[in-house]
Design a protein that fits this description.
By secondary structure, this protein is of the alpha+beta class. 42% of the residues lie in helices and 11% in strands. It is built from 21 helices and 13 strands. The strands form three sheets. The chain has an eight-stranded mixed β-sheet with strand order 10-9-8-11-7-6-12-13, covered by helices on one side. A three-stranded mixed β-sheet has the order 3-4-5. Helix 1 crosses helix 5. The longest helix is centred in the middle third of the chain and has 29 residues. It is elongated, with a radius of gyration of 30 Å.
Length: 621
């Protein structure tokens, strides 16, 4: 066993807390469990995280010690011994996932491992999680690949043999484990993680089921929203007081203490003199830790932690500045939750369960003073735009104010969406019954009556709110470059499984070539509620109100136009009726164009009625 013994904490935590720790009848069990965990960590060699800052067992103990220093004095008075016991165990386990060995990883992701230990939080066993990750990783953007490996070589699935794993394979597996290490900590505590020998790793085997679950949940909570644990706790234990254990308070102490582990000792300078850190992400983390010069509570503000930092570049400064902002938000949220859970229970003295610290302060807050000490400018400087003005400037160079280009872009986007839905039907990811009924896959209507209007409706995939916000309304941001789209429509060879016609990623911008007022309805195929989203906007609106609206899967775009532009579109479509197809291929997907005036509706174009077998051609006007 490792040399660690619980008595080594005697001189490292406040004396009142050491006395409480000794008082718990669980102390002997804790000593045995902690020693075993320490030995597992020592033997692991962190094969997937060699470039990370220190996550050794000593880091876990530092988290516990820091948490003890965060307790308010009146909190220490009412703190029961088991709060410390569970905090110590959870601190020891919270980064256990980073100590996974090659053989444990292979056993964990072996297809025969169907265990889902905590179905309230997880819906997939580890092999399925791994397969989904590999499918995503093969479609990583160049930026993501460079951040992980320092080069742009495509991702390959690692071999299922420990001896054959390359350093690149280890970095990739490390990214997978990093994402899911909070879950691993919970399952490690429960004793459901398979070992290299086929048995289960059970470091808390001397504790009962409830204790193992609670310890694991506290360890897990550092990587999830605190409020997302409330329902689980209320259904199984007690969110406020479970056998004199204050679970939420312990969770808060752990997550704040873990945030504070940015000491330079976790990134020793000598390491990167004898090891080349290949991952740009890891390299950035090392520089941040090495930039921290001092952390102290000895400031004029009794509720503040003061952190002295000396970042050597704008990149490092901005990273530290973001870390400070994140930490302050975490403090604010933690205080709010402590007040919500314990604040009104003064009779039980739960209102004493508070932290010493409310605020973070730093020497880099004063950018004017910092600028005098460093050569770089400590500020975020990047390309930016005045969005409505830029959109208007783009219209002329891109399209020359020709409404036919708007017709082309909207039609091509509709075609792509319909083809994607057809692909989902072929692969079984969608049932035909989920698709709406319509005369044609794409229906275009031209209204020759005031207000002169253009509309295009498709039976395609539709859009989620995220797609609307981050792609459709954002010029230059094509959803078909996103990880979500690639996961569904890019095969493992990196080739699209659907033929694509849209090219420019201009979203709603092209519709404004047809008119100034835009109305959109859309419902994504994944939405089973029967409701989609709708909104109306002009190009220079500062904000857009999106509302829910019942309707079919697909997208409908209506543009208020004028007589000249509607007539130009009508004449163009009529000229193509007997000759060549415009913007789509043959009769698949089917397209119908209706001409509507005050008295009747006339079918101007129908791809189903055409017998020609021509190929789609780029529009030339």
């Amino acid at each position: 066993m490792a040399a660690f013994h619980i008595t080594s904490l005697q001189d490292q935590i406040p004396p009142p807390l050491w006395s409480k720790l000794q008082q718990s009848p669980l102390s002997p069990k804790v000593g045995t469990a902690i020693a075993e965990i320490a030995e597992i960590y020592r033997l692991s060699g962190v094969p997937f995280f060699r470039e990370y800052t220190d996550h050794s067992f000593q880091h876990s103990i530092e988290v516990f010690k820091t948490a003890c220093e965060l307790f308010a004095e009146d909190a220490i008075e009412v703190l029961p011994p088991d709060d410390l016991i569970f905090l110590l165990l959870a601190s020891a386990l919270h980064d256990s996932g980073l100590h996974v060995t090659e053989d444990v990883f292979l056993a964990l992701t072996e297809q025969t491992n169907s265990v889902v230990a905590t179905p309230v939080f997880d819906d997939k066993p580890w092999p399925e999680l791994w397969n989904s990750f590999i499918a995503e990783a093969k479609r990583f953007s160049a930026k993501k690949i460079i951040s992980l490996f320092g080069d742009s070589q495509p991702v390959q699935e690692p071999p299922r043999s420990a001896i054959d794993l390359s350093q690149r394979d280890r970095l990739l597996i490390g990214e997978f484990i990093r994402r899911h290490h909070p879950r691993y900590a919970h399952e490690f505590s429960l004793g459901t993680i398979p070992s290299a020998s086929g048995r289960r790793l059970r470091p808390l085997r001397h504790f009962d089921d409830a204790a193992r679950d609670v310890v694991g949940l506290i360890a897990r909570s550092h990587g999830m929203s605190l409020r997302s644990t409330f329902n689980y706790l209320q259904s199984r234990y007690d969110i406020r007081d479970f056998n004199r254990l204050h679970i939420i308070y312990v969770m808060v102490a752990l997550r704040i203490a873990d945030y504070l582990q940015i000491q330079p000792a976790r990134a020793p300078v000598l390491f990167d003199q004898i090891h080349k850190i290949r991952s740009p992400y890891s390299s950035g983390e090392w520089r941040v830790h090495q930039s921290i010069e001092n952390i102290t509570t000895s400031s004029l503000d009794p509720e503040a932690i003061f952190i002295a930092a000396n970042p050597q570049s704008t990149h490092d400064f901005l990273k530290i500045e973001r870390w400070f902002a994140d930490f302050q938000r975490e403090l604010d949220l933690s205080w709010a939750i402590l007040g919500e859970v314990y604040g009104r229970f003064s009779q039980e003295r739960f209102d004493k369960l508070r932290l010493k610290t409310r605020r973070i302060r730093s020497n880099i807050e004063d950018k004017v003073e910092l600028q005098q000490r460093v050569k770089y400018v400590p500020d975020l400087i990047k390309f930016s735009v005045a969005e409505p003005e830029l959109l208007k400037l783009l219209m002329g160079p891109l399209y020359g104010d020709n409404p036919l280009y708007g017709l082309r872009e909207l039609t091509q986007n509709a075609v792509d969406s319909v083809r994607e839905l057809e692909q989902l039907l072929k692969t079984g990811l969608l049932l035909d019954s989920d698709r709406g009924n319509a005369v044609a896959d794409i229906e275009i209507s031209l209204f020759e009556v005031a207000p002169w209007t253009f509309s295009i409706c498709d039976r395609g995939t539709g859009m989620t709110l995220d797609i609307i916000k981050n792609y459709f309304l954002r010029a230059g941001a094509s959803f078909r470059t996103s990880e979500l789209w690639k996961k569904e429509f890019i095969d493992e060879a990196g080739k699209s499984t659907v033929a694509r016609t849209g090219r420019f990623g201009v979203g709603a911008l092209s519709a404004f070539l047809i008119g100034e007022q835009l109305k959109v309805y859309t419902r994504h195929y994944s939405d089973k509620s029967g409701f989609g989203f709708s909104f109306e906007t002009k190009i220079d609106n500062e904000e857009i109100e999106v509302v829910t609206q019942r309707g079919p899967v697909g997208t409908s775009i209506t543009v208020e136009s004028d007589k000249d532009r509607i007539n130009l579109i009508k004449e163009y479509i009529a000229s193509k009726h007997e000759s060549r197809s415009f913007y789509y291929i043959l009769a698949k997907p089917s397209v119908t164009v209706n001409l509507i005036d005050q008295t009747k509706s006339t079918k101007l174009y129908s791809s189903k009625e055409r017998k020609a077998t021509c190929r789609a051609l780029d529009m030339k006007v």
